[in-house]
Design brief:
With 277 residues, the chain is mainly beta. It has a single domain (3-201), classed as OB fold (Dihydrolipoamide Acetyltransferase, E2P). The protein has one helix and 17 strands. The strands form five sheets. A seven-stranded antiparallel beta sheet has the order 9-16-10-13-14-15-17, with no helix packed on it. β13 and β14 form a beta hairpin. The model has no long low-confidence stretch (mean pLDDT 93).
């Protein structure tokens, strides 16, 4: 995967970069696996804004992804690698031996013609899905389940992965790039390999219009508001904008930096061996 830069003919093009989409093979999606996607504009059922800075954007269809990988012991072959506007990674269209087609998350080295399978005793190749207790130590995995049979929930975005660090007491320890080590049941399934499009983090948006196409509206700084609108508003100039004068806060008065928002009695704490750095 590569990043494309532009000649600086305009101020926007001086910094803007895009993905080259070298791994993508087709532009049109497989229509039977498309679903509708409702846009809320950040509003609830009463029409009140409950999530700010959301609205507009290009229309998009949802691609139905097989996160459960529950088509067991039936081999499949990768037909196409496609762009998905709903996620940062690419997706792969799989044609199984019985004729059914499904979308899965594409891995870094996946391409048309790659053979994959979901099985309890499959070979250790990219794209194959199997319970974690069958995967050797040190292997990179993604689309990992929290609960067996629920479907993958961990490591699904572009370039994401976890490493199998240890196995003990019917649990598997996963080490994440952040440094966190977490226990997951050995019966949970994971897919071998790293998620595609790891260069996504290096793309520079470059322009406000491109952000609007993504459905993200502008953000006004709190210090530019009046006191009635924001805890950091008011004052002459930037009287409340840091430097020890005022701690950054949300519009509702919650401290924005350093405040731990995770519940102290969260049930999943027992599965975290080491917190992230």
């Amino acid at each position: 995967m590569g990043i494309k830069a532009y000649r600086p003919l305009t101020p926007v093009q001086r910094y803007k970069t895009t993905n080259t989409f070298e791994q993508v093979t087709v532009s049109a999606p497989y229509r039977p696996l498309l679903g509708t996607k409702k846009r809320s504009g950040g509003r609830n059922n009463l029409g009140q804004i409950c999530v700010r800075h959301i609205g507009g954007g290009a229309r998009k269809n949802y691609r139905v992804i097989d996160f459960k990988r529950n088509k067991m012991n039936i081999p499949g072959i990768v037909e196409t690698i496609e762009y998905d506007p709903n996620r940062t990674c690419f997706i792969a269209l799989i044609r199984y031996a019985d004729g059914e087609r499904r979308y899965i998350l594409a891995t870094v080295n996946m391409k048309s013609g790659t053979k994959i399978i979901s099985s309890d005793d499959c070979e250790f190749a990219e794209g194959n899905c199997t319970p974690l207790n069958n995967i050797p130590l040190g292997t990179m995995v993604h689309n990992i389940e929290y609960m067996a049979g629920k479907g993958g929930q961990i490591a699904r975005s572009a370039g994401a992965y976890a490493q199998i660090a240890a196995k003990e007491n019917n649990m598997v320890q996963l080490k994440f790039p952040s440094g966190e080590v977490r226990n997951v049941s050995e019966n949970c399934k994971g897919t071998i390999g790293q998620v595609s499009n790891p260069e996504h983090m290096n793309v520079v948006i470059g322009s406000a219009g491109r952000k609007r196409h993504m459905g993200i509206r502008p953000t006004t700084r709190g210090v530019a508001m009046n006191p009635v609108d924001h805890p950091m508003g008011g004052g002459q100039g930037k009287a409340k904008s840091g430097g020890g004068r005022h701690h950054p806060q949300s519009p509702w008065g919650q401290n924005a930096k350093g405040l731990k928002t995770r519940k102290a009695k969260n049930r999943s704490n027992q599965y975290i061996v080491r917190r992230r750095k």
